[in-house]
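Slide 14.
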Amino acid sequence: MRPTGIWFQTYAGEASVLQTRRSRLWLGLLGLGLLALPLTAGPWLLGEMTHLFITLIAVYGLFVTVGMAGQINIAQSAFVGVGAFAAAKFAGLGLPFWLVVPAAAVVTGLVSVVFALPAARVRGFYLALTTLAAQIIFPIVILALPMSWLGGLVGMPVPAPDLFGLNLATPTGFYYLAFVFAALAVWTGFNLPRSRFGRALRAVHDNDTAAGVLGIPVTRIKIEAFFAGALYAGVAGAILAYFLQFVTVSSFTLFTSVWYLGMLIVGGIHTPLGPILGVVFVTLVQESLHTAANTFMQSGAFMGGGAVFALSSVVLALCILIALIFEPRGLAHLWHTAVTGFRLWPFPRN
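Slide 15: predicted structure.
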């Protein structure tokens, strides 16, 4: 719903994401604030923001596969791991940073196609089991290969990134690196639903039988949905590998895949705004609980560290459940309701 006075002369203007001058101003201020953050923030905050940006990229991959195409994927962490190990291998061979990231994304996309092939014949619970197999097979393959290939149980070191002689291996460098790729993921996430490929994904999501009758190649679109979502995961994995400077299979677990999917559901599974709100909400709650747990342990409490952090994970899961119970359509729906009320105030929305 739009307030009186907002009207358009072209279809492109009406279909634009930022339809008012005020929205463009707020976005510009947010972008400037994020660009200026390293001037005032310390290394800890820059590290947390870098990890948030990397998580956002991975969750946007889930938005394409799950939110737009309706293909259940609980192996996003495994695909992020594929991108991380591919980046570590390519970087170890001496490839430059600007070539490692796209190469790792393509390798991840090709690996996802192998597990996307069953999507042509199965759906729902059975498709979830197929992606679960990808998550389980990933560490088995890494550990079974010779250590000289991908490091095995020990893992692989990743050399420091540099871009045309500019050293990026600093908290500020990693922050800007992740910020640029996260901004690119957000831009593609908002524009993809309005493309021809995005409309085909929506059609397959709503009714793949009807989509096939309309001439949409359903099997190809499902495979391309997994491929496109894995590209995001590959980029996230490559940046995470450079950020951690060491990759092991223990960093890419089923638990992480579930959290990725939980972030998307909490934020809003069917809107490109959902990944942003979901990642920010879950990250803030998680860091708040970890801070409270550290304070609780330093106060001399009788509980051990493992019990405290396990309890904090339970509380985090309860917070997510409460958010879903009170707003099953995600935080994006609350955001749109609040923005509509702000635009129409003091007039009623009904």
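Speaker note: Residues 24-253 form one domain.
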